[in-house]
Every structure is written in C-alpha cells, then in structure tokens.
Batch of 3 targets.
Target 1
Amino acid sequence: MSRRVCEFYNLAPQLVVPDVRKAAEYYRDKFGFEIDGFFFDEPPVYSIVHRDGATIHFGRSDNGETKNNEMVRKGSRLDVYILISDVVALYDELKERGANIVEGPIERVYGRTEITVVDENGFHLVFGE
C-alpha cells in the first residue's frame, strides 16, 4: 500500500490591520499587488491581495491596533518573507512607486539578495532572490 503525499502550494499570511481597505490599497499602489476584487462587509473586515504566487490576507483589528512580529535579527524585523525572481527589478519598481524601502538590495551570507520594505502599518516585508 502506497502512502499518499500532500504537496504545499502557497502560504497566505493574514496581517491584522486597523483599516483593511487602506492596507489593501497601499499594497496595490506601493508594492504592485492586485486586490482580489472584493472587500468583505462595510466597513471592510477582510480583504485579499496577490501578486503572482504571493497572497496576503488582511483582517480588521477589533481594537484598532496591529501586532507586528517581534523577531529581531540584529536590529531588523521580519513579518513576511516573499521569494522573488529578480530583486534589482523589484527594487527599481518599488522605488518608482514610492515604497518605504529600509534596506537593500543587500547580499546576505546565506546566499540571498534581499530588500526590506515597511508598510503604512509598520509591517516589515523582505523580498529575497
């Protein structure tokens, strides 16, 4: 009897934010994501954005606060890590869009070249090639 194997396809983190519409529109305008065509409820309590194979969900905070990841790596934070194919092309695009780029492109000792951006809610996204 052969054992069935499950393959994972994608990861879609949920970021809890005070204003779902504003967050989704920021990711569209600054990071080039597309809004998946809808906002749940009014005012929105949930939305989804995607860019190619990367998907991020936004849920509205009950108390108006965000909870960022407190993981610290020598002064840098990481809430979402997204693997990409061309870090220089993305850097140029994000710079043109006016994104808040706080680091990079930088080559890491583990073989990836990365850029770090911060969204309007303080979440740190790292894009790595």
Note: The chain has one domain: 14-128.
Target 2
Amino acid sequence: MEERAVRITEYTESLFPEILALYRDAGWTNYTRNPDMLANAYKNSLRILCAYCGASIAGVVRAVGDGCSILYVQDLLVHSSFQRRGIGGRLLDTLFSEYPNVYQTILLADGSEELSRFYRKCGFQPVGAYGCVAYFRRKLPD
C-alpha cells in the first residue's frame, strides 16, 4: 500500500460504530464490554484522529492531556488487516505535528518486542531511560 492511499481524518461521533469495531478487532474487551464508557472517553478526549484506506477505517489514535505540558497517547489501534503498512506511524506523526511544543508525550503499551521496536522507531523510550518509574492504578470491576 502506498502511503498516500491513507487518509487521516478528524473523529466525529458518527464514526463510533467503526471505532468500536477497531477495539473488537484488537480484543480490547474492557472497552467493548462497556461502550458507553468508551463513548464518554471519546467525548472528553483532547484529540482523536482516524486513518482510512479507501472507505475502510484502518486505525485510530486518541490523545488526552492539556496539549501543552503533556500529551498522553491513550489509544493507538490499527486494524489487523492494515497493520505493518505505516498507518500507526502516520497517525502518531499527524498527532505530534498538531502539538509540536508539548513538553512530554507518554503512552502505556504491553511489553512485546514488536511494540517496543515500533514505539522506539517513533521516538519513544522506556521511562527507565529517563530515571523514571511509571505507576499505574485502575478501578477494578465491581
């Protein structure tokens, strides 16, 4: 696939069913079991960009934060049938171009070697490289 065949668009609420399908494809059941939470999260996000290949949604990136001191990449998903085509990188590059002066950009990801290589290629480093430790707290299901 040629890079120019990917079209990056702004998210609108009408795209939510397609977005939910991306989360299903990725197996992110915390969101698919609670689509109302995901819809509210999307409404309260700083920026959401979608990637299309033709008429098909290929990926999404969702950021939260203040866009000045912190940009947190909450979700980056590329549909399994479109992976390894540069779409995730294009989504991140587009997002970063909209916030060129943000002090720090953070994301959490699983520790797979494949994702580690991808995020390092995109300019990320493990927090330990900066002498930092990440802490995580989540609400457990009732």
Note: The mean pLDDT is 92.
Target 3
Amino acid sequence: MGRRSASAKFMARAWVFPGGRVDDIDQERAAGLVVGDNDPAQLPWIAAALRETVEEAGIWLTESPRVEFLGDRDVYRILDESGEKFVADVAYFAHWVTPADLPIRYDARFFATLVTADLNPIPDLHEIDDAVWVRPGDAILRAQGQWLVPFPTHVTLEQLARATSAAAFMEMTKDLAVETVQPRIKVEADGSLRVVMPGEPDFDDLPEASLNAGAVAEAARIAKESGSRNAEFE
C-alpha cells in the first residue's frame, strides 16, 4: 500500500493501493503488452493497474519482475525499447462507484496478482510518499489509529483478510461474481455523515443523490476534520 502525499488534492495522506485512471494508451496497448491468464474484457484496466504500480511504486511485473524507479520516463516506451511485456495473472475482484453526492467521483476496479519475488517498493515521492508491503489484517489494525484508510479500501482489506494466504485469495477469485458497490450517503439529524451500503436497512429509502447537496458537503467537511472513516472514499 502507498500513502498519498500531503499535497494531494484528493485523499491526502490516505493509505491506498497503487492505481489510477485508465488512459487512452492503456486501451491501445493492453492486448499486445499484457501476457497472462487474464479476462480480455478487463485488459485495459489491468494494463492501467500494472502501469500505475510501476509509476507509483517502481514495481515492474514483467517476465523478470524487478524494482526500478521510473522518474519522468514513460512506462510503455521503456517496455518497447527493452522488448519486455507485463507478465501477470491478474484477478478482478471488486468494483466500487463513488456515491452520487460527492463532488469528486470515480469508478474503480480492484485487481490482485501473486508476486513471488522480493520486490521492495520505491515510492515516486510525487503521488505517493511512502510505500510498504503489509498484511491485510495488520493494515486494518493500523487503520484504527495510525493510518487514514478510505472506506472502500478498508472493506477491500477485510475481503483480503478472509483468505489464509495470497494464493488462497487468488483461488477464491476464480468463482467470484463481482458486483458493483455504490454506497449512498445519509446526513444524520446531528449533521454527521453516514455511509450506507447496499443491503443495509436504510439503503433503499435513500435517493441515489441527495436533494440537499449543501448539507452533504458540510457533513463531509465535518467528518474529514474529525478523522471519521466515513470522510473519504478511494
């Protein structure tokens, strides 16, 4: 996991997984530069995940995995010049969409792969100022005080922690039906903000988007200042 830099406009100082948006070049190059037992429909997102892992943590999941600081260089140009490709069996296991009330939104897919080499991450010191390998259970414990962990990341860590090992988790993903999770937001009578997950009692009674965006924004501001885990989403 990596800690977002203090200067980040979104989720500053939060501990998250490497990742980012799918660029046009990921769409264009994915089929030719990603090798492995992967779902063809997910290849652009997988390519983006592997590229972002290089950019943020210096981890290259190529035929001979390695750690190499990227700096200002371009990932795909380096792959082309060296004749390398990304080589990884990548499992798609979660899909989160930001509540409609929030001003900054995302549509995020979560992926997992096995890494057998000893690859100590090198943070890029731009988006990520620290990066570590951490057991899911330990990350959950750190989120109780030391770490700011966004709500979807926390839920994903709980999902990972249910497996006895990384290999066991990869085995679990083979029969996993991924459902899109889009929480809704409730502003309580005291002005606090509560994340309501699909399936929880209040979920169906809440509109997908609040009719009082100002109240939601104010509740989010209060939650952020108080350090509530409901304050930020990944």
Note: The chain has seven helices and twelve strands.
